[in-house]
Structure formats: structure tokens, C-alpha cells
């Protein structure tokens, strides 16, 4: 949670210095993503909303990759195909954040149904 708080502070400062186009802090919500990551197993899929950087950090996603996406530079893992703060990290089980609210509900239900059809025990959160 502290890592998220520090990351947020530095990225907000970079945004105010015009090094980032925009940044959405998770101030006060760090525990939500951290606890979610601790409760889930590898292979479980997260369908997050904004302010879920802590979930990525708790799942050991590289801060360099997150920063490169925020800066939309040549090392951006998504190659500029997504808005800077709308992370998507397949290897961390982090479904792409959508700009539209509540789209994750139907996507999570579909993923959970596919998981049930395969008879596995993975969770969609």
C-alpha cells in the first residue's frame, strides 16, 4: 500500500510537470487492490476499475512498465493502443480497464462462465 502511495505521489507530480498527459490517483483506495491481490490466486482474473494500481503492484508488475505506459514512450507495453492510465496486464490477470463505467461486470461474468465450463476453480473478481 505504501508503494502505491509513493508511486501515486510521484506520478501526480510528473503529471503536474507536464511529463504525463493525465494521471488518476488511487489515494485512499490502496488497500482495496492490495487486499484483492492477496485474496486471489495466480490465474484468477481481475476486472478492475480506475484507481487499481495497487492490485498491479501487489502482483509484482514492473513499475517501469507502468511508468512507460503512462508516458506513452517507446517502451509502453501496450504500444499506445490504450489510454495511459488504463492498464492491461494479461500475465498479472489484470483485464484492460475500460473508459466506460460498469462494462467490467458483463466481461467478468462471461469470463467466470467460461471458467465454469472448463471445470476449473479460477475466480473472476
- Largest sheet, if any? none
How would you spell out the order of helices and strands? Answer: HHHHH
Radius of gyration: 15 Å
- How many strand units? 0
Separation, N- and C-terminal Cα atoms: 19 Å
Beta-strand portion reads under 5%
Give the structural class: mainly alpha
What is the global morphology?
A: globular
Overall mean pLDDT score? Answer: 93
Total helical elements: 5
Proportion in helices: 40-55%
Low-confidence stretches: none
Can you walk through the features of this model?
The chain has 125 residues and is mainly α. Helices cover 44% and strands 0% of the residues. It contains five helices and no strands. The relative contact order is 0.17.
Features:
single chain, about 120 residues, mainly alpha, 5 helices
List the helices and strands and how they pair.
Layout: H1 2-16, H2 30-39, H3 53-58, H4 63-71, H5 103-117
Summarize the structure.
The protein has 125 residues and is mainly alpha-helical.
Amino acid at each position: 500500500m505504501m508503494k502505491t502511495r509513493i508511486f501515486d505521489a510521484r506520478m501526480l507530480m510528473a503529471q503536474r510537470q507536464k511529463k504525463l498527459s493525465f494521471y488518476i490517483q488511487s489515494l485512499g483506495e490502496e488497500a482495496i487492490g492490495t487486499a484483492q491481490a492477496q485474496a486471489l490466486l495466480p490465474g484468477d482474473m481481475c476486472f478492475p476499475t480506475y484507481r487499481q494500481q495497487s492490485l498491479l503492484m501487489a502482483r509484482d508488475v514492473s513499475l517501469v512498465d507502468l511508468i512507460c505506459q503512462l508516458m506513452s514512450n517507446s517502451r509502453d507495453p501496450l504500444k499506445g493502443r490504450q489510454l495511459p492510465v488504463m492498464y492491461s496486464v494479461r500475465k498479472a490477470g489484470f483485464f484492460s480497464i475500460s473508459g466506460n463505467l460498469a462494462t467490467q461486470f458483463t466481461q467478468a461474468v462471461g469470463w467466470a462462465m467460461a471458467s465454469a465450463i472448463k471445470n476449473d476453480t479460477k475466480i473472476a473478481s
